[in-house]
Amino acid sequence: MTITNLPPSLISTLSGEYYTDPGIFALEQERVFEAMWFCVARASELAGPGRFRTCQVGRESVLVCRSRDGSVRAFLNVCRHRGAKLCLEESGEVKRAFQCPYHAWTYGLDGRLVAAPNLTSMPDIDRSEYGLVNVHVREWLGYVWVCLADAPPSFEDEVMGAVVERLGDTESIENYGIEGLRVGRRVTYDVRANWKLIIENFMECYHCATIHPELTEVLPEFADGYAAQYYVGHGAEFGEEVKGFTVDGGEGLDRLPGVGEEQDRRYYAITVKPQVFVNLVPDHVIFHRMYPMAHDRTVVECDWLYLPHVVEGGQDVERSVELFHRVNRQDFDACERTQPGMTSRAYAKGGVLVPSEHHIGAFHTWLQDRLDVPPTQ
Ligand code: FES
Ligand code: FE
């Protein structure tokens, strides 16, 4: 890994190698994804004891499951015997325990080693020492967050603090009752781009007029390219003729009961570094998680959350989902068009931050600080 050609100007982006160098990506895995709180799953995916989900967090595979006492547990998905990957599926359910597919060591839902073939004939093996390795876990907004650090940072400061920074308080997000909403639709996007291109794209609105015709119809102030969403507590207002946050601006679904007058007919976007984006509108919440897989590949999982009776009653959410699904595809296509340019000599010293993108410059400074490399500016 070489971190060279750092552009000296205040208006430059990170240089191309930040998006293409596997060594820099490895550093990000260690100092960002394995060090911070990382959102892995919707708690409702773990509806009953034995339901599980696996996902990549930094360099590790993590297993989260619902245990017998109803709590969510998280472990490194690695067998303590000889290191085989314990759980091979992305999600599923086990009856009582996880059994390693290699030599059949068996772990309870609390991670304890409960059985192993012929273990009684190996008295020097202390079973209590060879349980799965625990990972810190929290639940908030109906999502499961894990942290691989030995001493995790304060969840209140790091995760809730990002919401407060954007909305002014946590009450404003609690009004949406996200925990009690149901997943009406989930779409998983496999994006051939570095995770930072996705986060930078999400943080800016400069591209909205060019690539988001449907979104700018609903939110006319996005058409001027300024990231109005970054003023604390300020949501973007729906256009006058717009009835709801739908692909054609037609009527939405039932409004979330906690959403007050000041949050009605407004759209809020929140970035929780390093990998969560939340969009709030009066009748639903769109919740994105990024799973950075490689320097040039990021899986994005996006949930559209509605009131339980909307989903259970089979109401038509199609026009509602379609708006942001199109926005996502437009955004991710743009990121994929950008990724090859990161290796070009034309981008060796990076690109340009226009005046409305100073917060992207702040993101770069934040990242360089975490990676402990010299700042660009
Ligand atoms: Fe898992 Fe041997 S590696 S039981
Ligand atoms: Fe966009």
Structure description:
One of its GO terms (molecular function) is dioxygenase activity. The structure is a single chain. With about 375 residues, the chain is an alpha+beta fold. It has nine helices and 16 strands. It is globular and about 75 Å long. The chain starts with about 20 loop residues before the first helix and ends in a 6-residue tail after the last helix. About 40% of the residues are buried. The N terminus is likely disordered. The structure holds FE2/S2 (inorganic) cluster (FES) and fe (iii) ion (FE).
Number of helices: 9
- Please report the total strand number as a whole number: 16
H/E element order: HEEEEEEEEEEHHEHHHEEEEEHHH
Largest sheet, in brief, is: 6 strands, antiparallel
Q: DSSP strand (E) fraction?
A: 15-25%
- Uncertain spans: 1-9
- Could you give the order of strands across the largest sheet? 11-16-15-14-13-12
Tell me the CATH topology of the largest domain.
Answer: Naphthalene 1,2-dioxygenase Alpha Subunit, Chain A, domain 1
Structural class: alpha+beta
Radius of gyration: 22 Å
CATH architecture of the largest domain: Alpha-Beta Complex
Our measurement of the CA-to-CA distance between the termini, rounded to an integer number of angstroms, reads 21 Å
Query: What's the name of the CATH homologous superfamily of the largest domain?
Result: Naphthalene 1,2-dioxygenase Alpha Subunit, Chain A, domain 1
Structure characteristics:
binds FE2/S2 (inorganic) cluster; Rieske_2Fe-2S_sf; 377 residues; 2Fe-2S; binds fe (iii) ion; 2 domains; 4-stranded antiparallel sheet; globular; 6-stranded antiparallel sheet; alpha+beta
